[in-house]
């Protein structure tokens, strides 16, 4: 089964992201706006309890995540996804590393760039157009996320929550 | 903010429900297939911790839910929603009662009929047509759900997971 690990920002920031995703992101209907902490990975359903245990341990070590969505940026030319850039704090980098060390399945291919995707799968010219517009609007939101979620994917591509982990530590 | 309490069946049963929802349920993209344990209710975001505590207590009392999706039925003429009927066991009725007693917000208007919606918002003639077809196919799935979820709704109508509660008791 395919799993992923995410943090959902506040309703307010999700609503803001959705105003863009509705128009520009074909994944809009598959999952609500999120910051990915571990890219989707395949794991046997019988091994999910080990993953839960690993995440419980991590969640007992880390405190709520302070995030600052500071500007609108793009992964172009690697992909043409546009996103709210989240400042890569030591805390975010550390929890990302901790998760990927504890759960080696489906290793990360890229450097970790914390972000919330708001547009993707456009043509190059749409991308340039939309990025130009969105950059002018910008984003500036600071908040605290006190939990992370283990999600799994259904056959139609949509994601269901498997489990929540409250961040109750102080790293 | 609007909250709801649900139990997600297995991926297999969700995938089956989605084969119908994709075609017949306009709420398809807003949330993955689920059995509602408490209808959507408004509660101030600052009160959500009280709700979490109440659900933690209930989840410590109840064991995993045994469900049997036994046939395809309809709420017609109250609404024209078509659903997998879940046999209303004492356990399901009890957890539904416990949740609604512990969280009085937005009291339930109907008798509790455990179900997973697979089609809704059709015209009456579409409803009759589809119900006839689906009844012939039927459904027969028994399984165990070991957790419940507190969800909240975004402005666009989609639902995000707030918290999971593992059912670790023995009621």
Automatic annotation (TrEMBL), chains A, B:
Motif (HXTX 1) on chain: 34-37
InterPro entries in the cross-refs: 2H_phosphoesterase_YjcG-like, Cyclic_Pdiesterase, YjcG
GO molecular function: hydrolase activity, acting on ester bonds
Keyword rRNA processing found: no
Enzyme class: hydrolase
Positions of short motif HXTX 2: 115-118
Keyword flag Acetylation: no
EC number: 3.1.-.-
Keyword terms of this UniProt record: Hydrolase
Active-site feature positions: 34 (proton donor), 115 (proton acceptor)
Family statement drawn from the similarity comment of this UniProt entry: Belongs to the 2H phosphoesterase superfamily. YjcG family.
Name this polypeptide is given: Putative phosphoesterase A6M13_09240
